[in-house]
Give the backbone structure.
Amino acid sequence: MKNRTNIRFLNHFIVGVFLVFLFGHVNAQSLYECPAGNISFTSNADLEIIKASSDKLKGLLDVEKNTFAFNIDVASFQGFNSDLQKEHFNENYLESNIFPKASFSGKIIDKIDPTKATQTIRAKGKMNIHGIQQERIINVELVKKGDSYTFSSGFNVLLADHGITIPRIVYQKISETISVNVSGNLKMKK
């Protein structure tokens, strides 16, 4: 139990240091925040479809430095087929008491063009789910609306990449590949 507490502390500490380092000295004109974005996932297995979503996605984007950081409270997902399914998600698979946050942070590969109404950019960074980081490149669509942006993206997550195992007894009810969709608004931070 002490080891799990140390891992949880280390995860929070690393994310905190990263955010301070990444956004500690930025030009306010280039910093955008997402106070409440949406994230949903679907497990489309042979015997069952599981869907859940959360509107608690938080993030920052620095257009000048082409950096970003987003995180979600894992326990905030709602909409499962049953309360028991949600309990298993949090206790047996994502272990949200040990790994309470999932995050994605890194650099924007493509320069964001503020003159374009719509553009697709690539975000390259570390995706941390269940305490295991994987480097990912994800395509994101940005739509400029005045002095803000909306963003949306869809991608897949392999459970095995993040140390999440499926017991044989429910193997046909949980997909090994989870479809994820994210969206939200980025408003200029004042």
About this structure: Residues 122 and 139 are 5 Å apart (CA to CA).
